[in-house]
Amino acid sequence: MKLAIISDPHGSFDDLKAVLESVRRETEHILCLGDLYECHIGKKRRNERFHEVSDVVTYDPDYEALLTFPSLRGNQEERIDEVLVVSHPVKTRISLLPEQTTLDEALFLHGHQLNWSPDWEPIVEKGKYPLVFIGHSHVPGIYRKGRSIPWEIGKPFTLKKKRYVINVGAVIFDREWCLYDTKNRTVTRVKA
User: Fold this and answer.
1) What is the pTM of this model?
2) What percent of the chain has pLDDT above 90?
3) Residue 167: beta bridge partners?
4) How far apart, in Å, are the Cα atoms of 49 and each of 45, 55, 79, 81?
5) What pLDDT, on a 0 to 100 scale, did the predictor assign at position 139?
6) Are the CB atoms for 181 and 156 separated by under 8 Å?
7) Can you give the three-state secondary structure of 48-112, one letter per residue?
8) What pLDDT digit, counting tens, does each position of 11-22 carry?
9) 3-class DSSP state for residue 16?
10) Are strands 106-109 and 131-134 parallel, antiparallel or unpaired?
């Protein structure tokens, strides 16, 4: 199976639309690792509660129409769910998002749950899944034993029978995504 893995659109209609057009030339299978939305409330104000949706998140019906694929819960969704105290379609969508999912030997999560080095490289403990796909930092990369491995755009990278952490990059601004070929065990970094 070929799975398109996207992350961090942060409510950008134009960037998400461009990425989805690129993705659909390769596969119909899509998973978003989170941060579908951008929360207008910073971390320092997360103890406050809001009754106006527009104070917390931009609601755009055209953007919502693009969200036809499964997604995970990112840190932006967590904060929106925490501070927004009214019933709204965005809050309903967010409440249904899981924190992680798996497919065969791969674990998928947003990445805010991990520890990060000062250089924004993920620190992932050994676990039962040899492949860990993340987003969060907006910096695409493949990591093996805590070290970054070169990953060129458009060139499939063969995943040996080892442990890897793959950061798929960000939809917002960079319009990047990852094509994971489960049969051939490759990941390809794609720019829309």
Assistant:
1) 0.97
2) 92
3) 134, 141
4) 9, 10, 11, 10
5) 95
6) yes
7) CCECCHHHHCCCCHHHHHHCCCCECCCHHHHHHHHHECCCCHHHHHHHCCCCEEEECCEEEECCC
8) 999 999 999 999
9) helix
10) parallel
Which residue type is seen at 12? S
Q: Up-side HSE of residue 164: CA atoms within 13 Å toward CB? A: 23
Of 3, 12, 13, 15, give the one whose Cα is nearest residue 174.
15
CA 148 to chain centre: 19
Q: Are 5 and 33 within 8 A, CB to CB?
A: yes
**Could you tell me the two tokens for 94?**
């967010």
Contact 30, 79 (CB under 8 A): no
Closest CA to 141 of 122, 115, 162: 122
Structure tokens at 87: 């019933």
